[in-house]
User: Fold these one by one.
Assistant:
Number 1:
Amino acid sequence: MQYRLTAPASLHASVQLPASKSISNRALILHALSGGATRPENLSDCDDTQVMIRALDHMPDVIDIHAAGTAMRFLTAYLCVTPGTHVITGTERMQQRPIRILVDALRTLGARIEYAGNEGFPPLRITGTRLTGSEIELAGNVSSQYISALLMIGAVLPAGLKLQLTGDIVSRPYINLTLQLMHDFGAQAGWTSESSIAVTPGGYRDTPFRVESDWSAASYWYQMTALTSGNAEVELPGLRVHSPQGDSRGAELFARLGVQTEFTPQGVKLRKEGQPAERLDEDLVDIPDLAQTFVVTCCLLGVPFRFTGLQSLKIKETDRICALITELRKLGYTVHAEQDSILWWDGERCPADPQPAIDTYEDHRMAMAFAPACLVRPDIRINEPQVVSKSYPRYWDDLRAAGFGITTSPESR
Ligand SMILES: O=C(O)C1=C[C@@H](OP(=O)(O)O)[C@@H](O)[C@H](O)C1
Ligand SMILES: C=C(OP(=O)(O)O)C(=O)O
């Protein structure tokens, strides 16, 4: 399928964003480990959370988590402490996303895990057992999801857990989000140094919990506000000012691109105000999911940039470094990569496709970050637009309600 997009002349919208998938998927694991009856409220309706709910509710012999990185990593640890034998698998891409660091760490604790396909990658065959280990060292520079997965089971291990992280830690706010939720569910855990974390044994308590709106999803509305040439005012109820979500930092970066955030009792209000900065140089290691939003926005605003800390982008839903460079070329922007962890643009242009059709590579964020480009460049097409359901199933409905024209083109390319 392919969508053809047209933009409204000005942007006035109030959008109920999806609930955070990162918080939903943590709350579901912690709820399951608490053994309680009070299910978390306002869980996301996105694919990544739905696969988690199905797995935990039914615990089939073969658990298919499709494309959900959090579900793969969090359930792998969860199954190690849960009675029974299960195979956990996912999409073809998921079977290329590395998991050895987590498997090695769990095996050190005493877990029974075998690779059911290729060494180092899902699918995995896991038999739950009593884990007696309590201290491990693991790399912190590949994916924070391995660390979050270990921390969450740490509180139900007989001796708790001590983690020593090596290398430069990526996605640290997601580790802090895990610690915050563990605390909300009654556990004690925290940093003991810049690179070590301790979890006290004692388990979780049954806790009423409500999931807040998703700051990563909010970034596309910031982007639309920044790119509108007319007036723009967007309300996003349900976002919290002091959010534990690291991606709330997007608000501060967008202020430098001419979008002001007003925090209200209901959520936030965005307004286009002031001029974008002359250039943007930023380390995005704490907010990798916003990389696509900022790279596309800066190109379309004509703001040169250098974004570092992108080393985790190659192992996400697609190789996001390659995907960004390839698709921005179709819009006439020549973006460069360095050392697989930096993207930079000095304003260089190339001939654009006359009717650019953006490929999405089974990556929701490629579709969501490129759609706002229609505000600057009419006649953008998005291939396989349904990918957005991974984190934001109503994305296109929300765009329609905000005045965007979305028609289905018969051709797929
Ligand atoms: O823990 C989480 O909820 C997430 C952690 C991040 O992954 P990495 O730690 O692999 O960078 C992020 O990209 C992902 O969308 C969600
Ligand atoms: C990287 C992402 O998800 P995950 O790693 O959980 O599949 C994302 O949502 O951008």
Number 2:
Amino acid sequence: MARKPLIAGNWKMNLNHLEAIALVQKIAFSLPAKYFDKVDVTVIPPFTDIRSVQTLIEGDKLLLTYGAQDVSAQDSGAFTGEISGSMLAKLGCTFVVVGHSERRTLHGETNETVLAKTKAALKNGLTPIVCIGEGLEIREAGDHVAYNVDQLKGSLAGLSAEEISKIVIAYEPVWAIGTGRVASAADAQEVCAAVRATVAELADAEVAAGVRVLYGGSVSSKNVGEIVGQTDVDGALVGGASLKADEFATLSAIAAGGPLP
Ligand SMILES: O=C[C@H](O)COP(=O)(O)O
């Protein structure tokens, strides 16, 4: 089954709403409509930027989509600081990142938390981008495939095949995030193939053939071509390089198969 590549730009805690508007305008200008037949491109700004990004994208009928970096596992109520799935859906978000390693490490999110947030996203019609990834010690011990398979199984435990078919999975080795130390294309392929095999086990072969598996960790225009050229890698979750319009447009164009903008 042909899977359309997805390039998702996770801005993390960068750019206020005015800067967000400027960046989205530049990306849209650099990436004409023809590219969007071959690649889905989404921006994942901080919560405070989403309304401005929505207004721009809807007002100018841009072909980019947008999403959020996190979602509450709760529906509503006394959860100070939390943002619900229904709030994000009302703002027109397509995607929500769930279980990013920075949330797992810095905010103590477990596989159970990630599963609850994944359910909250699905319940509200959002596509969760469920993140997994091993630290350096696990990679150096050679246990990375088993570790990622376990993390994925824990993060998707009990979901139906239909629910799993609506999810995007992102493999992000923690040692490659923001470090400039990108995994080799073969490293990315090895884990993404194991992810797809695990989806076949948890759901079925058809769901596994259709689910999009992204790689994340120091992706740039220099390495994206080789990475998304791997059989089981269907795009990228991009951090630092998504904050530069030209670079993000260029790497999206490469994922689309070119030509360069
Ligand atoms: O969500 C994005 C990843 O954490 C990758 O970040 P990076 O491209 O800055 O390494």
